[in-house]
Each structure stands twice: as C-alpha cells, then as structure tokens.
User: Which sequence fits this backbone?
C-alpha cells in the first residue's frame, strides 16, 4: 500500500516529517508523499530521513487555489507530486501564496473582533500555531478558548462555518494562484499536477468539472480518498455512501480522461481521525511517479 497525501508539522499537524516516515514504516507502506498546504518547508527533512529507510518518499505540496464561483471552483486543491522543492521561482511564488494566506487569517480575526465581538487577536492565533502554517483550526481554537460564553451551544463545525467561504466572518485571500497558475507552477518545478479529493466538491456536473481541470492542464486525479472522514461527508449520513461511491466513480473518470491515478489519506495527525494508509491506495499507482 502507498499514501500520496500526508500533512506534517510544516503545515498544520503535530507530527514532524520524519515521524510520518516512521509511522508509514510501521505500517509497511511502500511509498508516501508529503503534501503540506502551500509549503514545502518539511520536504527536505522528509526526503533525507526517508533516504536510508525501506520506503519511497516523494516531495509534494497541496496548493489551495483561488475560489471562482463563476467556474464552480470552490475549495479546489491541487496537489503537486515530484516537484523540485528547491526551485527558486517555485519558492518565490509559494512565498507570496503564504503571505496571502497570513493576510487573510489576519483579516478574519479582525472581522471576528470588530464585527462579531469576539475576543481574538491575530497574535494569539499566531502563538497557538507556533511554527506551523496558521490555519482555520488555530482561529477556532482561540474562538473557543477566549470566548466560552459566546461559543456556548456552538459546535466546532459551526465555528468553522463562520470563518469559511460563505460564512459571516470569511474574507477571501488577495493573492492566490488560480487553477491554471497553480498547475503551471507545479509543472515548471517538474512536478505532476493532480486534482485533490474531487468528490468533496459540490458541483452540478462532476464530469464537466474534471473536464475543466483537464483543459487547464491537470495530469492526475485522486481516486482513493478518505471521504468518510473529511468534509463535507464526515459525521453525516452520507459518510458510507461517499466512501463507496467516489473512488469507483473517479476511477472511471480517470480512465475516460486518461489521467494518472493517485490517492491518499489526507492524514492530519490527531486533528482528524484518519490513519496513514487508510485510503487503501494500491502499489501499482507508483509506476506513474518513479
Ligand atoms: Zn490535504
């Protein structure tokens, strides 16, 4: 088994890249890829630690692209596998993307504070994130910690909704790569652009939405994925349906559009109840990446 979608402490998880390698070794996985959100800061450690071990480690990234409701591109993530994580032009563009991410989180904190009366500052969110990329979970953590009365009766899911696209405290990012730009960036760094977890997208025509990505230059698609443990199906009555339906559906789609098949667990450490290797990605996918 392999797992080509893992997150580490370089983005939003407590496990270090080398700990991921150890966990995968225990499970006797054949190959793993590190695909942190908008950063390759953990890749060097991941590759060097994995080098002498009995496992193949692939460099990767997961880019959050700009929301474009007109093209029905909402919450679309593009994974880049086998990228040259040392490429200067690649790193410079990623730096801007991270800056945009930070400014967005800052603006969300400001809205929560000024418009909704939450006791929250960007500095307190930053402090909780430590060396990790600041994400929505950190904001939610402070919302809960500093505002016990305000969040009473609200679930974690409710709080996430508030600061996600469509939510009252949501602010979009100013600088964000669009679909074509992120595909181009990955290709220019020698990587393979892959459409991540297509089943999570709420679109009227699933085939058409993949076709748009194919036209934009996507080369691969995630077939196996932990749909039952991720948004929007986690903790809904559609968990099992999604888990049974989407991998089969996207396997056919991959064949139809001649796309490279990929897959992974989207492991997020203790934050989600997902285990490494849980997506059951078959070894034979590896031939497209090595
Ligand atoms: Zn992911």
Assistant:
């Amino acid at each position: 088994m392999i797992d080509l979608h893992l997150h580490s402490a370089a983005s939003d998880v407590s496990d270090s890249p080398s700990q991921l390698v150890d966990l995968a070794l225990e499970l006797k996985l054949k190959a793993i890829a590190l695909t942190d959100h908008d950063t390759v800061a953990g890749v060097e450690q991941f590759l060097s630690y994995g080098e002498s071990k009995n496992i193949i480690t692939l460099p990767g990234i997961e880019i959050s692209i700009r929301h474009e409701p007109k093209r029905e591109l909402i919450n679309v993530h593009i994974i880049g596998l086998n990228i040259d994580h040392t490429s200067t032009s690649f790193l410079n563009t990623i730096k801007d993307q991270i800056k945009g991410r930070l400014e967005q989180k800052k603006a969300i904190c400001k809205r929560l504070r000024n418009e909704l009366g939450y006791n929250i500052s960007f500095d307190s969110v930053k402090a909780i994130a430590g060396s990790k990329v600041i994400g929505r979970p950190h904001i939610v953590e402070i919302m809960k910690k500093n505002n016990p009365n305000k969040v009473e009766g609200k679930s974690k899911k409710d709080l996430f909704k508030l600061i996600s696209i469509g939510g009252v405290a949501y602010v979009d990012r100013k600088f964000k790569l669009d679909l074509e730009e992120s595909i181009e960036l990955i290709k220019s760094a020698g990587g393979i652009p892959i459409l991540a977890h297509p089943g999570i997208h709420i679109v009227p025509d699933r085939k058409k939405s993949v076709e748009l990505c194919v036209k934009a230059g996507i080369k691969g698609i995630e077939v196996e994925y932990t749909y039952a443990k991720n948004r929007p199906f986690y903790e809904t009555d559609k968990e099992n349906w999604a888990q049974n339906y989407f991998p089969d559906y996207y396997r056919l789609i991959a064949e139809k559009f001649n796309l490279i098949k990929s897959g992974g667990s989207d492991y997020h450490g203790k934050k989600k109840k997902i285990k490494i290797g849980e997506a059951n990605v078959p070894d034979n996918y590896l031939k497209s990446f090595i």
Remarks:
- The chain has a mean pLDDT of 95.
- The radius of gyration is 18 Å.
- The chain has nine helices and seven strands.
- The first helix runs from residue 17 to 26.
